[in-house]
Amino acid sequence: MENGVTLLLILALLWFWWDSRGVAEIAIQAARRKCELAELTFLNDTVGWKKIRLQRNRQGRMQLQRTYFFEFASDMAERYKGEVLMLGKQVTNIKMDVHRVG
């Protein structure tokens, strides 16, 4: 019994890690695209995990809502922060700090 619970826990953690990597890749693409459209430089070519919680989608089903942060620059003199909000595997919002136009 204990081995079965341990195995289920390990499988759940592996699934969570694998799913989170896929969602992070979508967030990276979204942040990069947002920076390109605004003629900004997407720094570090990655996003970092900020928070995670359960949230209902439009159909009322519970999904993981993940918030990722990223950094960007307009003139390479100063770094600014942005956030990508994901619900499941969908980008729901991208916020960016007020920044100088370079």
Please characterize this protein's 3D structure.
The longest helix is centred in the first third of the chain and has 36 residues, at 2-37. It contains 1 helix and 4 strands. It has a 4-stranded antiparallel sheet with strand order 1-2-3-4, covered by helices on one side. The model has no long low-confidence stretch (mean pLDDT 93). The chain is of the alpha+beta class and 102 residues long. It has one domain (2-96).
Question: What's the arrangement of secondary structure elements?
Answer:
Elements: H1 2-37, E1 41-56, E2 62-73, E3 79-87, E4 90-96
Structural category is: alpha+beta
Biggest β-sheet, characterized? 4 strands, antiparallel
Mean pLDDT: 93
The total of helices stands at 1
Outline the low-pLDDT stretches: none
Lateral strand order in the biggest sheet: 1-2-3-4
Shape label: elongated
Helix content: 25-40%
Distance between the termini: 62 Å
Beta content? 35-45%
| Topology, number of strands | 4
Order of helices and strands: HEEEE
- Domain unit count: 1
Measured on Cα atoms, how large is the radius of gyration?
A: 17 Å
